[in-house]
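Supplementary Text 2. Reproducibility record for the structural model of the 542-residue chain.

All settings were left at their defaults, and a single model was retained for analysis rather than an ensemble. We include the record here because the model underlies the residue-level annotations in Supplementary Table 4.
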Amino acid sequence: MPVTSRPSGLSRRELLAAGAATAAAGLAPHAAAAAPATPRPEPVPAFELEEMTIADLSAGLESGRFTAVELAEAYLQRIAQLDAQLGSVIETNPQARELAELSDSERRAGRVRGPLHGIPVLIKDNIATADRMETTAGSLALVGRRPAHDAFVVTRLREAGAILLGKTNLSEWANFRSSHSSSGWSGRGGQCRNPYALDRSPCGSSSGTAAAISANLAAAGVGIETDGSITCPSHICGLVGIKPTVGLVSRTGIIPIAASQDTAGPMCRTVADAAVLLDVLAGEDPRDPATASLLGRAPMRLADCLDPSALRGARLGVARRRFFGYSPAADAVLEEALGALARAGAVLVDPADIPNADDYGDEEYEVLLYEFKAGINAYLASLPPGEGPRTLLDLIAYNRQHADREMPYFGQDIFEQAQRKGPLSDDAYRKAREKCLKLSRRKGLDEVLDKHRLDALVAPTGSPAWTIDLVNGDHYLGSFSRPAAVAGYPHVTVPAGFAFGLPVGVSFVGRAWSEPVLVRLAFAFEQATRHRQPPALRPTIG
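Retained model, structure tokens:
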């Protein structure tokens, strides 16, 4: 099969297509069928809880304005009313009311676990729950293969008193199955849609979390990122998204792509909500060695980092080369955002380009292929005994046997490439990983941040949403996700404005463990501009 050629320095969505054989030979016979018609828009009903923050909801619970049961039922009703148009929630939790009743009883007894007590939260369907919900990464191959244990982040949410309202749709296998995929499509959940224009992509892979939280289907959501899967859907759906430093949040119980880059993170309507949620998710886990860096480190307490004056005197570098220019619409929004940052007192170093940003795309892809094979084989082997795939090779065979449902639009060329890789002891893997670390960290982000004495770098998070195209796949122009993703450094995106009625985000990227700095900057920008607007579920931008 021919190999797609590409220039160096493309984004994750492009690099997944790069070096990947074209998927045409693996498609089912009806792969060229047109995308399903955009759902007929229904009027968005008035919603008492619309745009309420976690603090608002907590105050309402404390005052007795409503109970946790009433909150859960209100959001479940909202899902029933709207999600047929969005396709964002893959299943609701049959135990949600039971959990809410327990929350109310604890509150009546004077036990309030924290700011998330009684707050309904949605999580992505590649985060394990040992309950009556499924954990499938959107694939029919894992239906019924329930894990024996909660993911560590689920344990943290339960301990904090959050109500697990349900699981969200996603790009199947976190967008690591095919180089021609449509973001937000899964065999189990179908196509998720953008709440600002239903014919537009929600980006991936945490597409369902983004669409649901933006449309006020829950108070807050949890996504997973390897390279852009929190930040892209957050910016495209008008949310705040935080991709933490790898190791701040445990990966235990999360269906993996790559151990060196995977992390869970918050996707919320405000910076304050994201800070509260990340404070809960973060924590050392003996089962995840990456979190060992937290031992002896004081908790970040991001909810205490909400300073509206934090931009005064902050040194921000504008990462122009490669991260501007692919989308004139995004560039225009970001120029306005730069003006707002300057007016708020920030010192802009413009440009402050990232060295070597174009020089490790091939190596990142190589690392992801190797680590995916190792990680998915280990995850599948950890599931309780039963029928179903136990290895990546088994998944490939399952998809071929069920191509009419699993591969109606695109194939599994990335799966097949990963299967051909050897163990993580291979020289090819070790050399690729070493190059990625060197060029993304010491010779990349660290170099530019140190050279200009910067608090953070800023750039457009990505382009406005493209139209959904199940025939040809995503029309992805570019993003700012890769440097922080490969380095394992934190990345925060905040709504920065609109282009043609579609959200565009501004990104703040900093050093490892600089979440407190980034949250301060993001909060100050948010408070100075207040660009977040709830979506109206329009059929198109016209």
